[in-house]
Amino acid sequence: MTRFLPVAALALILSGCAATPVIGTASPEGSSITSAVAAAGEAAGGGGGGTPFDACALVSAADVEALIGKNDGGRASSAPGADGGGCVWTNKDNEYSVSVDIGDTDTAINGLPAQDPAFGEVEPLPDGMQYFAGAVDFAAKGRKCSVQIATNETTDGGDKAAAVKLAQAVKAKI
């Protein structure tokens, strides 16, 4: 009997966790959820719901090919309601990639925000840039931006050196 009570209590508790499954489809673009996400971004000092930044237009096809070889031409990305944007080019043969992320307006008003030291060391770079977690971060016109090049050149710093050059070129175009 003493064993039965804890087992019965556990069964009673777990039965309360059982729920009716939700059936339906994801909220479409423009739904109240999407609007709420956009409003939250605006309230947090983000992009203010403007047109997403076309990060793919900041790097030429020839420049990407010189870095990673033939690639998919780039895939744009941006969050709902954001005026930042990103682009990732991938070489499907070897999984090399180039990533460019342009932050929303006012994400780096006074330069780059401080990185949490719990996530690793930040290496200062020229022009106020930083190398952090495999990417080169920089501020451009009040936006926190980053570029990353992922190839097998990481052991000799080749990806980092190429990413610094790419960051300088991207920053000049913003």
SSE order and pairing:
Elements (H helix, E strand, L loop, with lengths): L3 H14 L14 H12 L17 H8 L6 E3 L7 E6 L6 E6 L20 E2 L5 E3 L2 E6 L2 E8 L7 H16 L1
Antiparallel strand pairs: 1-2, 2-3, 3-7, 4-5, 5-6, 6-7
CATH-defined fold name: Protein Transport Mog1p, Chain A
What is the name of the CATH class?
Answer: Alpha Beta
Task: Find the count of extended strands (DSSP E, 2+ residues).
Answer: 7
Distance between the termini: 73 Å
- Total separate domains: 1
Estimated helix fraction: 25-40%
Largest β-sheet summary: 7 strands, antiparallel
Unreliable segments of 5+ consecutive residues:
1-47
Order of helices and strands: HHHEEEEEEEH
Mean pLDDT, as a whole number?
Answer: 79
Query: What structural class results from the helix and strand content?
Result: alpha+beta
Beta-strand content bin: 15-25%
Overall geometry comes to globular
- Please tally the helical runs, counting DSSP H or I stretches of 4 or more residues: 4
Q: Could you explain how this protein is built, in words?
A:
This protein has 174 residues and is α+β, with helices and mostly antiparallel strands. The chain has a single domain, classed as Protein Transport Mog1p, Chain A, CATH 3.40.1000. The chain contains four helices and seven strands. The protein is globular. It starts with a helix and ends with a helix. The N terminus is likely disordered.
